[in-house]
Amino acid sequence: MLSHAKSEQLFAEALKYIPGGVNSPVRAFRAVGGQPFFVNRAKGAHVFDVDGNEYIDYVGTWGPAILGHAHPRIISAVQQAAEQGTSFGIPNPLEVTMAKRVCDAVPGVQKVRMCNSGTEACMSAIRLARGFTKRDKIIKFDGCYHGHADSLLVKAGSGALTFGNPDSAGVPAAFTQHTIVLPFNDVEAVRAAFAANKDQIAGIIVEPVPGNAGLYLPKPGYLEFLREITAAHESLLIFDEVMTGFRLSFGGAQKLFGITPDLSCFGKIIGGGLPVGAFGGRAEIMDYLAPLGPVYQAGTLSGNPLAMAAGIANLEELQSSGAYCKLEELAEQLSAGMRDAAKSANIPVQFNNIGSMFCGYFTDQPVHNLADAMHSDRERFKKYFHGMLEEGVYFAPSQFEAGFISAAHTPADIDHTVRAAAKVMKTLH
Ligand code: KE4
Predict the structure, then answer these.
(1) Which of the four CATH numbers 3.40.640.10, 3.40.140.10, 3.40.1190.10, 3.20.20.140 does domain 72-320 have?
(2) Ligand 1 atom 24: the closest Cα is on which residue?
(3) Which fold has domain 5-67+322-425?
(4) 267 CB under 6 A from ligand 1?
């Protein structure tokens, strides 16, 4: 058994000053039991906890570390930027460079506004869609997460005709009444919602590849359908690419699937590990934003020079290093190996993957939406999670999160992971 003595001391201390001892709930290990370990160093595909344990990391700080941790190009970019000052609150050249990089890379983005988190990006994109269309209602899909803005903390109502109910304390029912929650991959549900809310739907916000209930894929034609039906009803299609942006390709999921949304949200990778968010889209929509237009949106640290420097370094290295080919190869090795491990252990696992994103569900049924994902055996996942941790492999501490491979992972890392999985899965009967 790995020692976690120092982490346990730190967690006891953290609990005195931080709610739940964490600054974001998923880190608290509540979904898998036990206590979180504390990390004070990360390098490449590995993280190191305060007790000296080393783990192959498949969380990658929830997506930003696509090149691995502490990439020298990112570190030196941040160091150089920091020496010039950490924040100006005045336009700086790096903001222009970042905006140009995003607009050049992403098909649906002619103009982009930086902010400081994916939550802000999605919240702002929805406000913009409502301001542009002068409509109030928004469709989202269960299992998709777009950050913690009030109107998005919502669970499905009883159908397309009823609106979402708050999914968090502190959110007044009135704040979610314009949010319609539908099952993902269900074409008829979307048709019914538009029929029942004629000319009232500002837009659809969707993770083109949902990565917040594990990972499942859009069925063939589904994203094309969302594109067509929003256009037909003069509603906006918003791709939440906070996770998939610059992950599934340099142009994101929209480039990979050949679908151009009206607005796109970003975060994670474009900040290279520093706090960042962004939303962008057609210029005629984006120009509705203050100071040009009537939709207000702002942020003290938006376009912060350190986050811009880190993000630009991440994007430039991604573009020049051939990282995506390497990610595909590693992903192929991992998915083949994990499927073999499950078979050799005679444990039913549905291993979904696309590009460098993946999720293994402990179920013998395919997983195409949240309802399917809920069939996963979570007790089995808990044992698996801790068993893999003992083998020096760190997966997200929840069945309902996606895993991420980085360009810093090696075939040897993948081989170790697969061998460990075969060993641990045999203990799950
Ligand atoms: P942030 O506000 O956490 O930067 O981004 C919110 C967000 C928006 N859209 C998508 C598709 C996202 O995945 C996220 C945040 N992702 C989670 C991981 N599933 C962040 C981890 C956490 O909450 O601690």
Answers:
(1) 3.40.640.10
(2) 24
(3) Aspartate Aminotransferase, domain 1 (3.90.1150)
(4) yes
- What is the C-alpha separation between 327 and 331, in angstroms, rounded? 6
Question: pLDDT of 241-297, one tens digit each?
Answer: 999 999 999 999 999 999 999 999 999 999 999 999 999 999 999 999 999 999 999
- Please tell me the residue having the least CA distance from ligand 1 atom 9: 146
Tokens of 102: 């995003």
In the chain, the amino acid numbered 205 is I
Tell how far the Cα of 119 is from the centroid of ligand 1, in angstroms.
7
The Cα 207–Cα 184 span in angstroms is 10
Domain ranges of the chain: 5-67+322-425, 72-320
Q: What per-residue confidence (pLDDT) applies to 160? A: 47
Amino acid identity of residue 413, one-letter, is D
Give the tens place of pLDDT for each residue, 290-332. 999 999 999 999 999 999 999 999 999 999 998 999 999 999 9
Q: Which of the 8 DSSP states describes residue 22?
A: S
Peptide bond into 291 cis (omega under 30): yes
Ligand 1 mutation pick, 145, 205, 398, max ligand atoms within 8 A of CB: 145
Report the sign of the C-alpha dihedral through residues 404, 409, 415, 420, in that order: negative
> Ligand 1 pocket check: which of 22, 115, 119, 401 to mutate, most ligand atoms within 8 Å of Cβ?
119
Ligand 1 near 109 CB (within 6 A): no
- What is the mean pLDDT of the segment spanning 184-189? 97
| Ligand 1 within 6 A of CB of 242 | yes
